[in-house]
Recover the amino acids of this structure.
C-alpha cells in the first residue's frame, strides 16, 4: 500500500476522532473510551510493526507497556522528575530493555522468540510484586497510586480535564503512528520486510540482520514505553493487573482485526475492538465467548483484517507490500 | 582475487569441508562440481560468512574470515541460492533495489536498478509481485538483485537446476554477458558438465568436502576419479 493511501486512512481516522469532542465532549465515559482507543492504537501498531512487518514474533508488547508505565511513574513519584521528561526517560529505558530482550532473540526462530518474549512478560509480574520491585518503588501488589498528571506550562492533563487530555493523547498517538508510517515506508521498512521474507537472501544483499532487528526492538519498545508512561500519568494509578492475560488477548484481537502486517489497520482495529468490547458488555460472562467467535468469523472472511476492504487484489496476495 | 587456505568446516562429527584450498583469479569463470552432499553449497556459505570455519579466506588480499554476510556483500561478493529466494512482500523492482541500497550503501541509484533489471530481461515485470514470476524469472531476479550490489565476484549456486534446454541457453548467455560485459568474476556450482566445460576456465571437483580434481575443464572431466564419482567404478575403468 502506498504512503499516500496509508497517510489518507490515518488522517481520515484521526480527523474523525478529533471531531468527537464536539458531539460527546461532555460524556466522560465516551471520552475516556476514546483516549483508551488512542493508547491501544499505538501499542497495537507497534506490535504490528515488529510482528507483521519485521516478522519477529515478539509477545513482549504488554510487558514493554508496563515497563514504560512503571518506570515513568517511579521517575516522577520517587525522583520528582517532571512527567513529560519522565515519559521520555521511560521510553528510553524501555528501549534499552527492548534491545536487551532482542539480543538473545537474534539467533532464534519464530516460536522461540515468542517464548522468550512472553517469558519476559510472565517474569515481570512477580518481579514487580516482589522484593526487587518494592525496592525499586513499584508498590508491590498494590501498585503505584499517586502518579502525578502531565503538566505543561502549569496546565494539567489528567482524567479531571478529559477533553484537553484527549487532544494530548490524540497528538501523541498521531506522532507515534506517524513515526511508524515513516519507518515502514523508509529503507528501514524495506529491510524489515526483506528480513521477514528471506533472512539469508537479505543478508547476502547487504542487509544487517543484527542492526535492523535490534532497531525494530528498540523503536517499538520506545514508542510502547512512551504511551505506557502516558497511560500511567493519565489514569493516575497502575498495578500489575495490566499484565494479566485479558489485556494481552484484547491487544492481539486489535492486531488481527486491523490485519497483521496491514498498518494502519491496527489503528482501526483498536477502535473497533474497544468499541465492540464495550457494546458487548451487557452479555456479561458471555462477552469473551462472543468476541472470540466474532474474531474467528472475521479471520475467515477477512484474512487481511478490515484493511482487506482497501486492498487491491495484487496487494491482498502480497501482504505488507 | 579470492583465496581459500586450508578451510575446514565441521558440523559436529560430520566434516562438510575438509582442508580445502583454491584460488579464483580476477575475471575468471570458475566452476565447482561434485555429487549431491559434496559440500559445494557449504563452501559458498563459508565464503559469504553464513557459517564460521577453520582456515582463512581472503578477497582482494583482505582477510574476510569471520565477517558477517552483509559486510562480505558490501565488500563486493554477491551470491545466489540453489532454491530461488525472493522477497514476496516487495515488487520485482523493490527486490532488486534492496541489493543496490544495502549492498552498495550510500550509492543508491534507481536508474542503475532499472538498468540491471533490463540487463537480465525482466523489464516487463518491473512492478509485478514476485509471486507472478516463473522459476526462470525468479532465478533472473536473484541474479539482478545480486548484480545490484555492484559486486566484483558473483557466486551462482546451480543456476540451471530445473531449467529446460532453452532456459539453460538463456542463462548461459546471461552468465557470459555478466563476465565479459560487466567484468565480474564468476564462480558457478553446477551439475551439468556441458555447461561447466563450455563456460568455465578452471574447474574444481569436490567430494565429501575434499578436492578430487582441479584444472582445465576438459582435462578434469576426463579424470578417472571424476568419472568414478559421477558414473561409477566400471565406467571409470572403461574410460
Amino acid at each position: 500500500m502506498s504512503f499516500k493511501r496509508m497517510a489518507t486512512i490515518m488522517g481520515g481516522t484521526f480527523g474523525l476522532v478529533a471531531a468527537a469532542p464536539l458531539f460527546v465532549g461532555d460524556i466522560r465515559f465516551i471520552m475516556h473510551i476514546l483516549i483508551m482507543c488512542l493508547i491501544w492504537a499505538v501499542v497495537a501498531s507497534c506490535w504490528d510493526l515488529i510482528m507483521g512487518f519485521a516478522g519477529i514474533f515478539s509477545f513482549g508488547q504488554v510487558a514493554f507497556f508496563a515497563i514504560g508505565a512503571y518506570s515513568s511513574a517511579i521517575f516522577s513519584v520517587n525522583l520528582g522528575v517532571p512527567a513529560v521528561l519522565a515519559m521520555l526517560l521511560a521510553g528510553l529505558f524501555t528501549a534499552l530493555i527492548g534491545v536487551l530482550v532482542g539480543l538473545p532473540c537474534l539467533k532464534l526462530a519464530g516460536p522461540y522468540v515468542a517464548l522468550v518474549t512472553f517469558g519476559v512478560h510472565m517474569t515481570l509480574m512477580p518481579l514487580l510484586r516482589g522484593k526487587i520491585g518494592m525496592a525499586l518503588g513499584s508498590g508491590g501488589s498494590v501498585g503505584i497510586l499517586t502518579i502525578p498528571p502531565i503538566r505543561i506550562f502549569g496546565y494539567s492533563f489528567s482524567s479531571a480535564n478529559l477533553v484537553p487530555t484527549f487532544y494530548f493523547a490524540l497528538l501523541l498517538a498521531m506522532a507515534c503512528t506517524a513515526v511508524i508510517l515513516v519507518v515502514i515506508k523508509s529503507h528501514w521498512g524495506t529491510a524489515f520486510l526483506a528480513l521477514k521474507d528471506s533472512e539469508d537472501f537479505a543478508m547476502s544483499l547487504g542487509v544487517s540482520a543484527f542492526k535492523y532487528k535490534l532497531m525494530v526492538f528498540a523503536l517499538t519498545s520506545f514508542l510502547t514505553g512512551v504511551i505506557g508512561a502516558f497511560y500511567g500519568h493519565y489514569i493516575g494509578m497502575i498495578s500489575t493487573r495490566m499484565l494479566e492475560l485479558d489485556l494481552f488477548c484484547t491487544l492481539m484481537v486489535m492486531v488481527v482485526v486491523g490485519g497483521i502486517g496491514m498498518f494502519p489497520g491496527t489503528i482501526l482495529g483498536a477502535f473497533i475492538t474497544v468499541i465492540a468490547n464495550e457494546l458487548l458488555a451487557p452479555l456479561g460472562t458471555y462477552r469473551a465467548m462472543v468476541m472470540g467467535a466474532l474474531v474467528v468469523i472475521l479471520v475467515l472472511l477477512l484474512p487481511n483484517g478490515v484493511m482487506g476492504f482497501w486492498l487491491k487484489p495484487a496487494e491482498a496476495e502480497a501482504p505488507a507490500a | 582475487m579470492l583465496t581459500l587456505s586450508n578451510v575446514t568446516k565441521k558440523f559436529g562429527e560430520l566434516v562438510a569441508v575438509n582442508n580445502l584450498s583454491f584460488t579464483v583469479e580476477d575475471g575468471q569463470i570458475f566452476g565447482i562440481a561434485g555429487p549431491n552432499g559434496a559440500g559445494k553449497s557449504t563452501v559458498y556459505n563459508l565464503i559469504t560468512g553464513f557459517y564460521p570455519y577453520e582456515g582463512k579466506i581472503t578477497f582482494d588480499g583482505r582477510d574476510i574470515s569471520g565477517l558477517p554476510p552483509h559486510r562480505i556483500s558490501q565488500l563486493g561478493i554477491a551470491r545466489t541460492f540453489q532454491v530461488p529466494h525472493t522477497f514476496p512482500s516487495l515488487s520485482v523492482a523493490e527486490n532488486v533495489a534492496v541489493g543496490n541500497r544495502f549492498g552498495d550503501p550510500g550509492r543508491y541509484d534507481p536508474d542503475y536498478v532499472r538498468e540491471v533489471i533490463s540487463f537480465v530481461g525482466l523489464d516487463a515485470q518491473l512492478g509485478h509481485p514476485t509471486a507472478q514470476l516463473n522459476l526462470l524469472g525468479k532465478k533472473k531476479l536473484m541474479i539482478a538483485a545480486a548484480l545490484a550490489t555492484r559486486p566484483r565476484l558473483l557466486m551462482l549456486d546451480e543456476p540451471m537446476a530445473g531449467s529446460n534446454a532453452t532456459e539453460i541457453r538463456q542463462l548461459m548467455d546471461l552468465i557470459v554477458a555478466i563476465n565479459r560485459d560487466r567484468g565480474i568474476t564468476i564462480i558457478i556450482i553446477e551439475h551439468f558438465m556441458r555447461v561447466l566445460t563450455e563456460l568455465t576456465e578452471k574447474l574444481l571437483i569436490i567430494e565429501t568436502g575434499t578436492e578430487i580434481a582441479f584444472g582445465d575443464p576438459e582435462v578434469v572431466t576426463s579424470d578417472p576419479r571424476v568419472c568414478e564419482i559421477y558414473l561409477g567404478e566400471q565406467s571409470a575403468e572403461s574410460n
Remarks:
- Chain A has one domain: 3-317.
- The longest helix of chain A spans residues 209-235.
